[in-house]
Amino acid sequence: MSDLSAFPIASTFPAKHPERLQLYSFPTPNGIKVSAMLEEIGIPYEPHLVNILKNETWTPDFLALNPNGKIPAIIDPDGPGGKPLPLFESGAILVYLAEKSGKLMPDDPAGRYETMQWVFFQMGGLGPMFGQLGFFFKFAGAAYEDKRPLERYANESKRLMGVLEQRLDGRTWIMGDDYTIADIAIFPWVRTVKEFYQAGEVTGLDTSANVLAWLDRCMARSANQAALDIPKRA
In this structure, are 97 and 40 located in the same domain? Predict the structure, then answer.
């Protein structure tokens, strides 16, 4: 039986199946990415709900796993060399799982790096900008009298949406004919803009036909539908 006792998080969230990959997450856009990836590749895993609404990522046990205090994070009991591997940052986890499973990443080096550049486009651009837009458009920031922050993030979000719209022109998926971790990285954030922030107009999503059609294709995948509620909220 796999031994996870070296990880403090295992005492907070005891594993029923310690031989499986352990997922510590919450169904936010970043959390959905990893759940969707795990559903796609079929590696056995055990999800644990880390309730960010109760600040459970700031406990000492969780910070020992991810000192940045963010979901998602994983422990793979069968990591490289057969040793347990703890890992945080959703983009890094996607790359790791793609390489571990041999799925959702091109085999040729050029295609691999091209795929990763779009994952990093999401990590460094879409995610941070869309997240800030959500704060100033939908949440507490919407009450700020100074609207310059909202304008800044709305304009940048609209520009980034345009980049994605252009990339998807004539393509089924981000990388063309093949669904990859680039699609998995990006779709939860676009879905959040549309469904949760309801910011389709200010981001240009409402008029981005290529992106909307691609999002529909993403959401038609059973793995992505399932991932919206993994880990299941209480």
Answer: yes
| CATH code of the domain containing 180 | 1.20.1050.10
The two structure tokens encoding residue 190: 């676009």
Q: Rounded to whole angstroms, what are the CA distances from 194 to 4, 42, 134, 189, 208?
A: 39, 28, 11, 9, 12
Q: Strand locations in the chain, DSSP E?
A: 21-25, 45-49, 73-76, 85-88
At residue 170, what are phi and psi to the nearest 5 degrees? 80, 5
pTM over 0.85: yes
The tens digit of pLDDT for each residue in 83-113 reads: 999 999 999 999 999 999 999 999 999 999 9
- Give me the torsion for CA of 44, 28, 222, 126, rounded to 10°: -110
Q: In what order do the strands lie in the sheet with 21-25?
A: 45-49, 21-25, 73-76, 85-88
Same domain, 65 and 135: no
From residue 187, give the alpha-carbon distance in Å to each of 57, 65, 154: 24, 26, 18
Can you tell me the distance from the alpha carbon of 184 to that of 217, in angstroms, rounded to the nearest whole number? 12
Name 22's bridge partners: 46, 75
Q: Read out DSSP for 25-41?
A: E-SSHHHHHHHHHHHHH
What is the rounded CA–CA span in Å between residue 174 and residue 164? 8
